[in-house]
Amino acid sequence: MAVYTEVADEELSAFIDTYDIGKLLSYKGIAEGVENSNFLIHTETGHYILTLYEKRVDPNDLPFFLNLMQHLAERKLSCPLPVAARSGALLGTLAGRPAAIVTFLDGMWVRRPRPEHCEELGRGMAALHLAGADFNMVRRNALDVDGWRPLFNQSGERSNSVVPGLAEEITRELDFLEQNWPKDLPTGVIHADLFPDNVFFLSNKLSGLIDFYFACTDAFAYDVAICLNAWCFEPDGSLNVTKARAMMNGYRQVRPLSQAEIDALPVLARGSALRFLLTRLYDWLSVPEGALVTPKDPVEYLKKLRFHQKVETASSYGLSL
Ligand SMILES: Nc1ncnc2c1ncn2[C@@H]1O[C@H](COP(=O)(O)OP(=O)(O)O)[C@@H](O)[C@H]1O
Ligand SMILES: N[C@@H](CCOP(=O)(O)O)C(=O)O
Protein backbone atom coordinates (compact mmCIF):
# COMPACT_ATOMS: atom_id res chain seq x y z
CA MET A 1 0.00 0.00 0.00
CA ALA A 2 1.48 3.29 -0.94
CA VAL A 3 0.80 5.75 1.77
CA TYR A 4 4.05 7.39 2.80
CA THR A 5 2.47 10.49 4.30
CA GLU A 6 -0.45 10.33 6.73
CA VAL A 7 -2.91 13.21 6.68
CA ALA A 8 -4.91 14.39 9.70
CA ASP A 9 -8.72 14.54 9.21
CA GLU A 10 -9.01 18.26 10.03
CA GLU A 11 -6.10 19.13 7.77
CA LEU A 12 -7.68 17.22 4.89
CA SER A 13 -11.13 18.79 5.43
CA ALA A 14 -9.56 22.26 5.41
CA PHE A 15 -7.68 21.42 2.20
CA ILE A 16 -10.86 20.16 0.50
CA ASP A 17 -12.64 23.37 1.56
CA THR A 18 -10.30 25.32 -0.74
CA TYR A 19 -11.98 23.52 -3.70
CA ASP A 20 -15.52 23.79 -5.05
CA ILE A 21 -16.22 20.08 -4.66
CA GLY A 22 -18.39 20.07 -1.54
CA LYS A 23 -17.57 18.94 1.99
CA LEU A 24 -15.40 15.91 2.68
CA LEU A 25 -17.59 12.91 3.61
CA SER A 26 -14.97 10.14 3.83
CA TYR A 27 -11.55 9.11 2.57
CA LYS A 28 -9.18 6.16 2.59
CA GLY A 29 -5.60 5.40 1.63
CA ILE A 30 -5.31 3.41 -1.62
CA ALA A 31 -3.75 -0.05 -1.50
CA GLU A 32 -1.97 0.22 -4.87
CA GLY A 33 1.05 1.93 -6.35
CA VAL A 34 4.54 2.48 -5.03
CA GLU A 35 5.46 6.03 -5.93
CA ASN A 36 3.12 8.55 -4.32
CA SER A 37 0.58 8.64 -1.49
CA ASN A 38 -2.92 8.30 -2.92
CA PHE A 39 -6.27 8.69 -1.22
CA LEU A 40 -9.74 8.02 -2.51
CA ILE A 41 -11.84 10.91 -1.27
CA HIS A 42 -15.61 11.12 -1.23
CA THR A 43 -17.17 14.57 -1.07
CA GLU A 44 -20.68 15.92 -1.50
CA THR A 45 -20.07 16.06 -5.29
CA GLY A 46 -18.62 12.57 -5.82
CA HIS A 47 -15.34 10.66 -5.72
CA TYR A 48 -11.88 12.07 -6.44
CA ILE A 49 -8.25 11.00 -6.11
CA LEU A 50 -5.96 13.02 -3.90
CA THR A 51 -2.24 12.55 -4.53
CA LEU A 52 0.60 13.69 -2.30
CA TYR A 53 3.78 13.69 -4.37
CA GLU A 54 6.69 11.80 -2.83
CA LYS A 55 10.39 11.16 -3.28
CA ARG A 56 10.80 10.58 -7.00
CA VAL A 57 8.67 13.48 -8.14
CA ASP A 58 10.46 16.77 -8.66
CA PRO A 59 7.93 19.51 -7.72
CA ASN A 60 9.22 21.54 -10.70
CA ASP A 61 7.83 18.81 -12.99
CA LEU A 62 4.31 18.93 -11.57
CA PRO A 63 3.03 21.63 -13.98
CA PHE A 64 4.16 19.39 -16.88
CA PHE A 65 2.20 16.40 -15.54
CA LEU A 66 -0.95 18.32 -14.62
CA ASN A 67 -1.05 20.38 -17.82
CA LEU A 68 -0.42 17.23 -19.84
CA MET A 69 -3.45 15.50 -18.30
CA GLN A 70 -5.55 18.57 -19.11
CA HIS A 71 -4.21 18.63 -22.67
CA LEU A 72 -4.90 14.91 -23.24
CA ALA A 73 -8.38 15.08 -21.71
CA GLU A 74 -9.18 18.02 -24.03
CA ARG A 75 -8.20 15.74 -26.93
CA LYS A 76 -10.67 13.12 -25.70
CA LEU A 77 -8.05 10.76 -24.33
CA SER A 78 -9.61 9.28 -21.22
CA CYS A 79 -7.38 10.24 -18.29
CA PRO A 80 -7.82 11.96 -14.93
CA LEU A 81 -8.53 15.67 -15.10
CA PRO A 82 -6.82 17.84 -12.47
CA VAL A 83 -9.35 19.79 -10.41
CA ALA A 84 -8.56 23.48 -9.80
CA ALA A 85 -8.93 24.98 -6.34
CA ARG A 86 -11.11 28.08 -5.99
CA SER A 87 -7.94 30.15 -6.46
CA GLY A 88 -7.46 28.53 -9.88
CA ALA A 89 -4.38 26.58 -8.72
CA LEU A 90 -4.05 22.93 -9.78
CA LEU A 91 -1.41 22.31 -7.16
CA GLY A 92 -1.56 22.87 -3.39
CA THR A 93 0.33 21.79 -0.29
CA LEU A 94 -0.91 19.23 2.22
CA ALA A 95 0.99 17.64 5.12
CA GLY A 96 4.10 19.39 3.84
CA ARG A 97 3.84 17.75 0.41
CA PRO A 98 2.81 19.10 -2.99
CA ALA A 99 -0.73 17.79 -3.51
CA ALA A 100 -3.35 17.69 -6.26
CA ILE A 101 -6.89 16.42 -6.71
CA VAL A 102 -7.84 14.67 -9.94
CA THR A 103 -11.12 13.24 -11.18
CA PHE A 104 -11.91 9.61 -10.47
CA LEU A 105 -11.79 7.29 -13.47
CA ASP A 106 -14.12 4.27 -13.69
CA GLY A 107 -12.63 0.93 -14.63
CA MET A 108 -10.39 -1.82 -13.30
CA TRP A 109 -6.91 -2.85 -14.19
CA VAL A 110 -6.41 -6.34 -15.55
CA ARG A 111 -4.25 -8.68 -13.46
CA ARG A 112 -3.67 -11.23 -16.27
CA PRO A 113 -3.83 -9.33 -19.57
CA ARG A 114 -4.90 -11.36 -22.59
CA PRO A 115 -3.93 -10.62 -26.22
CA GLU A 116 -7.12 -8.55 -26.71
CA HIS A 117 -6.12 -6.34 -23.78
CA CYS A 118 -2.63 -5.98 -25.25
CA GLU A 119 -4.12 -4.90 -28.58
CA GLU A 120 -6.33 -2.32 -26.83
CA LEU A 121 -3.28 -1.12 -24.90
CA GLY A 122 -1.31 -0.77 -28.15
CA ARG A 123 -4.05 1.37 -29.67
CA GLY A 124 -4.39 3.46 -26.48
CA MET A 125 -0.65 4.07 -26.25
CA ALA A 126 -0.46 5.17 -29.89
CA ALA A 127 -3.48 7.45 -29.34
CA LEU A 128 -1.62 9.01 -26.41
CA HIS A 129 1.46 9.56 -28.58
CA LEU A 130 -0.65 11.30 -31.22
CA ALA A 131 -2.69 13.34 -28.72
CA GLY A 132 0.52 14.65 -27.15
CA ALA A 133 1.89 15.87 -30.50
CA ASP A 134 0.80 19.49 -30.00
CA PHE A 135 1.52 19.66 -26.25
CA ASN A 136 3.79 22.63 -25.86
CA MET A 137 5.78 21.64 -22.76
CA VAL A 138 8.91 19.49 -22.74
CA ARG A 139 10.27 17.32 -19.94
CA ARG A 140 13.51 15.44 -20.31
CA ASN A 141 13.29 11.84 -19.17
CA ALA A 142 15.12 11.91 -15.83
CA LEU A 143 15.35 8.11 -16.00
CA ASP A 144 16.87 7.87 -19.48
CA VAL A 145 20.17 6.23 -20.40
CA ASP A 146 22.14 9.13 -18.86
CA GLY A 147 20.28 8.74 -15.56
CA TRP A 148 20.79 4.99 -15.11
CA ARG A 149 24.41 4.96 -13.92
CA PRO A 150 23.85 7.57 -11.19
CA LEU A 151 20.71 5.68 -10.17
CA PHE A 152 22.64 2.40 -10.04
CA ASN A 153 25.38 4.03 -7.94
CA GLN A 154 22.79 4.59 -5.21
CA SER A 155 22.50 0.80 -4.84
CA GLY A 156 26.05 -0.10 -5.93
CA GLU A 157 27.61 -3.12 -4.24
CA ARG A 158 24.47 -3.59 -2.10
CA SER A 159 22.90 -5.04 -5.27
CA ASN A 160 24.92 -8.20 -4.66
CA SER A 161 22.81 -8.89 -1.57
CA VAL A 162 19.80 -9.32 -3.88
CA VAL A 163 21.56 -11.50 -6.48
CA PRO A 164 25.25 -12.43 -6.12
CA GLY A 165 27.29 -10.76 -8.89
CA LEU A 166 24.47 -8.37 -9.81
CA ALA A 167 26.55 -5.17 -9.47
CA GLU A 168 29.02 -6.41 -12.09
CA GLU A 169 26.26 -7.64 -14.38
CA ILE A 170 24.55 -4.24 -14.26
CA THR A 171 27.81 -2.42 -14.84
CA ARG A 172 28.42 -4.46 -18.02
CA GLU A 173 24.90 -3.72 -19.22
CA LEU A 174 25.32 0.00 -18.55
CA ASP A 175 28.52 -0.03 -20.61
CA PHE A 176 26.67 -1.71 -23.47
CA LEU A 177 23.63 0.57 -23.38
CA GLU A 178 25.64 3.78 -23.10
CA GLN A 179 27.52 2.71 -26.27
CA ASN A 180 24.53 1.46 -28.23
CA TRP A 181 21.56 3.57 -27.19
CA PRO A 182 19.69 4.64 -30.35
CA LYS A 183 19.54 8.31 -31.23
CA ASP A 184 17.30 10.19 -33.64
CA LEU A 185 14.19 8.05 -33.20
CA PRO A 186 10.86 9.91 -33.42
CA THR A 187 10.14 11.53 -30.05
CA GLY A 188 7.25 13.19 -28.28
CA VAL A 189 5.21 12.79 -25.12
CA ILE A 190 5.43 9.26 -23.73
CA HIS A 191 3.81 7.84 -20.59
CA ALA A 192 6.93 5.89 -19.57
CA ASP A 193 5.14 3.77 -16.93
CA LEU A 194 2.21 2.28 -18.82
CA PHE A 195 2.05 -0.90 -16.75
CA PRO A 196 -1.19 -2.88 -16.45
CA ASP A 197 -2.01 -1.18 -13.13
CA ASN A 198 -2.08 2.18 -14.91
CA VAL A 199 -4.54 1.13 -17.63
CA PHE A 200 -8.21 0.73 -16.80
CA PHE A 201 -10.69 -1.46 -18.66
CA LEU A 202 -14.46 -1.74 -18.69
CA SER A 203 -15.91 -4.84 -20.40
CA ASN A 204 -12.48 -5.58 -21.89
CA LYS A 205 -12.33 -2.16 -23.59
CA LEU A 206 -9.70 0.32 -22.51
CA SER A 207 -11.51 2.95 -20.41
CA GLY A 208 -8.64 5.18 -19.31
CA LEU A 209 -4.98 5.77 -18.53
CA ILE A 210 -3.71 7.01 -15.17
CA ASP A 211 -0.49 7.87 -13.36
CA PHE A 212 1.30 10.32 -15.64
CA TYR A 213 4.07 11.04 -13.12
CA PHE A 214 6.88 9.58 -15.23
CA ALA A 215 5.56 11.12 -18.47
CA CYS A 216 8.26 12.87 -20.44
CA THR A 217 9.58 13.71 -23.89
CA ASP A 218 11.37 10.67 -25.26
CA ALA A 219 11.32 8.12 -28.10
CA PHE A 220 7.84 6.73 -28.80
CA ALA A 221 9.38 3.32 -29.39
CA TYR A 222 10.81 3.38 -25.87
CA ASP A 223 7.22 3.49 -24.56
CA VAL A 224 6.45 0.49 -26.77
CA ALA A 225 9.47 -1.33 -25.29
CA ILE A 226 8.31 -0.52 -21.74
CA CYS A 227 4.90 -2.02 -22.53
CA LEU A 228 6.43 -5.05 -24.19
CA ASN A 229 8.15 -5.80 -20.89
CA ALA A 230 5.20 -4.93 -18.68
CA TRP A 231 2.40 -6.64 -20.64
CA CYS A 232 3.77 -9.45 -22.75
CA PHE A 233 5.71 -11.68 -20.37
CA GLU A 234 4.20 -14.60 -18.48
CA PRO A 235 4.65 -15.10 -14.72
CA ASP A 236 7.17 -17.88 -15.52
CA GLY A 237 9.39 -15.28 -17.22
CA SER A 238 8.73 -16.32 -20.85
CA LEU A 239 7.73 -13.86 -23.56
CA ASN A 240 4.22 -14.41 -24.93
CA VAL A 241 4.73 -13.66 -28.62
CA THR A 242 0.97 -13.62 -29.27
CA LYS A 243 0.55 -10.79 -26.77
CA ALA A 244 3.56 -8.93 -28.18
CA ARG A 245 2.19 -9.24 -31.70
CA ALA A 246 -1.27 -8.11 -30.57
CA MET A 247 0.18 -5.06 -28.82
CA MET A 248 2.29 -4.05 -31.83
CA ASN A 249 -0.64 -4.60 -34.20
CA GLY A 250 -2.88 -2.42 -32.04
CA TYR A 251 -0.21 0.28 -31.92
CA ARG A 252 0.39 0.22 -35.69
CA GLN A 253 -3.34 0.54 -36.42
CA VAL A 254 -3.10 4.05 -34.94
CA ARG A 255 0.51 5.12 -35.45
CA PRO A 256 2.88 3.35 -37.87
CA LEU A 257 6.28 2.26 -36.55
CA SER A 258 9.22 3.19 -38.78
CA GLN A 259 11.89 0.64 -39.71
CA ALA A 260 14.36 2.46 -37.45
CA GLU A 261 11.94 2.12 -34.52
CA ILE A 262 11.43 -1.60 -35.20
CA ASP A 263 15.18 -2.22 -35.52
CA ALA A 264 15.81 -0.39 -32.24
CA LEU A 265 13.30 -2.43 -30.21
CA PRO A 266 15.71 -5.08 -28.83
CA VAL A 267 18.05 -2.41 -27.41
CA LEU A 268 15.14 -0.28 -26.19
CA ALA A 269 13.69 -3.35 -24.46
CA ARG A 270 17.04 -3.98 -22.75
CA GLY A 271 17.15 -0.36 -21.62
CA SER A 272 13.60 -0.45 -20.37
CA ALA A 273 14.27 -3.69 -18.46
CA LEU A 274 17.35 -2.15 -16.86
CA ARG A 275 15.49 1.06 -15.96
CA PHE A 276 12.82 -0.84 -13.99
CA LEU A 277 15.39 -3.21 -12.53
CA LEU A 278 17.28 -0.18 -11.19
CA THR A 279 14.31 1.62 -9.62
CA ARG A 280 13.02 -1.62 -8.12
CA LEU A 281 16.48 -2.45 -6.79
CA TYR A 282 16.78 0.95 -5.17
CA ASP A 283 13.29 0.68 -3.65
CA TRP A 284 13.97 -2.89 -2.47
CA LEU A 285 17.08 -1.76 -0.63
CA SER A 286 15.62 1.49 0.70
CA VAL A 287 12.06 1.05 2.02
CA PRO A 288 11.40 4.12 4.21
CA GLU A 289 10.69 3.24 7.83
CA GLY A 290 6.97 3.19 8.62
CA ALA A 291 5.88 3.45 4.96
CA LEU A 292 2.93 1.29 3.92
CA VAL A 293 4.32 0.01 0.66
CA THR A 294 5.10 -3.34 -0.95
CA PRO A 295 8.28 -2.98 -3.01
CA LYS A 296 8.22 -4.68 -6.42
CA ASP A 297 10.51 -7.58 -7.30
CA PRO A 298 13.73 -6.43 -9.04
CA VAL A 299 14.59 -9.97 -10.16
CA GLU A 300 11.55 -10.07 -12.46
CA TYR A 301 13.26 -7.34 -14.50
CA LEU A 302 16.67 -8.97 -14.33
CA LYS A 303 15.12 -12.03 -16.03
CA LYS A 304 13.56 -9.82 -18.71
CA LEU A 305 16.88 -8.08 -19.27
CA ARG A 306 18.64 -11.42 -19.72
CA PHE A 307 15.95 -12.47 -22.21
CA HIS A 308 16.46 -9.36 -24.37
CA GLN A 309 20.24 -9.72 -24.26
CA LYS A 310 19.77 -12.85 -26.40
CA VAL A 311 17.42 -11.19 -28.90
CA GLU A 312 18.97 -10.12 -32.20
CA THR A 313 16.02 -8.71 -34.15
CA ALA A 314 12.49 -7.59 -33.43
CA SER A 315 11.18 -10.69 -35.19
CA SER A 316 11.63 -12.40 -31.80
CA TYR A 317 8.79 -10.16 -30.59
CA GLY A 318 6.49 -11.37 -33.36
CA LEU A 319 7.10 -8.38 -35.63
CA SER A 320 7.53 -8.87 -39.35
CA LEU A 321 10.67 -6.99 -40.37
N1 LIG B 1 -7.92 8.98 -11.38
C1 LIG B 1 -8.07 7.80 -10.79
N2 LIG B 1 -9.27 7.18 -10.82
C2 LIG B 1 -9.44 6.01 -10.18
N3 LIG B 1 -8.49 5.38 -9.47
C3 LIG B 1 -7.28 5.94 -9.41
C4 LIG B 1 -6.99 7.17 -10.07
N4 LIG B 1 -5.71 7.49 -9.80
C5 LIG B 1 -5.22 6.51 -9.03
N5 LIG B 1 -6.16 5.58 -8.78
C6 LIG B 1 -6.00 4.37 -7.95
O1 LIG B 1 -4.84 4.55 -7.16
C7 LIG B 1 -3.88 3.52 -7.45
C8 LIG B 1 -2.48 4.10 -7.36
O2 LIG B 1 -2.36 5.18 -8.26
P1 LIG B 1 -1.01 5.46 -9.03
O3 LIG B 1 -1.17 6.77 -9.70
O4 LIG B 1 -0.68 4.29 -9.89
O5 LIG B 1 0.01 5.55 -7.83
P2 LIG B 1 1.56 5.81 -7.90
O6 LIG B 1 1.75 7.24 -8.25
O7 LIG B 1 2.02 5.45 -6.53
O8 LIG B 1 2.09 4.92 -8.97
C9 LIG B 1 -4.27 3.02 -8.82
O9 LIG B 1 -3.87 1.68 -9.05
C10 LIG B 1 -5.79 3.13 -8.77
O10 LIG B 1 -6.35 2.05 -8.08
N1 LIG C 1 5.63 0.47 -12.66
C1 LIG C 1 6.79 0.50 -11.82
C2 LIG C 1 6.53 1.05 -10.46
C3 LIG C 1 5.85 2.38 -10.38
O1 LIG C 1 4.53 2.26 -10.78
P1 LIG C 1 3.18 2.21 -9.88
O2 LIG C 1 2.14 2.67 -10.84
O3 LIG C 1 2.98 0.78 -9.49
O4 LIG C 1 3.39 3.07 -8.71
C4 LIG C 1 7.35 -0.91 -11.65
O5 LIG C 1 6.58 -1.86 -11.85
O6 LIG C 1 8.52 -1.06 -11.28
TrEMBL record:
Instruction: Name the Gene Ontology biological process terms.
Output: threonine biosynthetic process
Q: Can you provide one Gene Ontology molecular function annotated for this UniProt record?
A: ATP binding
For this protein, the Enzyme Commission number is 2.7.1.39
Q: In which pathway does it act?
A: Amino-acid biosynthesis; L-threonine biosynthesis; L-threonine from L-aspartate: step 4/5
Instruction: List the Pfam families hit by this protein, alphabetically.
Output: APH
Reaction(s) catalyzed by this protein?
L-homoserine + ATP = O-phospho-L-homoserine + ADP + H(+)
Give residue ranges for domain Aminoglycoside phosphotransferase.
27-257
Q: Keywords of this protein's UniProt record, alphabetized?
A: Amino-acid biosynthesis, ATP-binding, Kinase, Nucleotide-binding, Threonine biosynthesis, Transferase
SUPFAM superfamilies membership: Protein kinase-like (PK-like) (SSF56112)
Matching InterPro entries = Aminoglycoside_PTrfase, Homoserine_kinase_II, Kinase-like_dom_sf, Pseudomonas-type_ThrB
The organism's superkingdom is given as: Bacteria
Q: HAMAP family, from UniProt?
A: Homoser_kinase_2
User: Family assignment?
Assistant: Belongs to the pseudomonas-type ThrB family.
Q: What is this protein called?
A: Homoserine kinase
Species whose genome carries this gene? Roseibium suaedae
- State the gene name recorded for this protein: thrB
